[in-house]
Amino acid sequence: MQRQIPGGPVTVQLSSGESITGSEILVAAGRRAIAQQVGHESIGLKSFVDNGHSLPVDESLLVTGVPGNWLYAAGDVNGRALLTHTSKYHGKIGDNAIIAHAKGVFPSHPTKFDSVSATADLFAVPQVIFTSPTVASVGLTRTAAHRERRAVREVSASAATLGAILHADGYAAGWAQWIIDAKSGMLLGATIVGQDAAELLHASTVAIVGGLKIEQLVHAIPPFPTMSEVYLNLIDAAGL
Question: What whole-number distance in Å separates Cα of residue 231 and Cα of residue 233?
Answer without folding.
Answer: 5
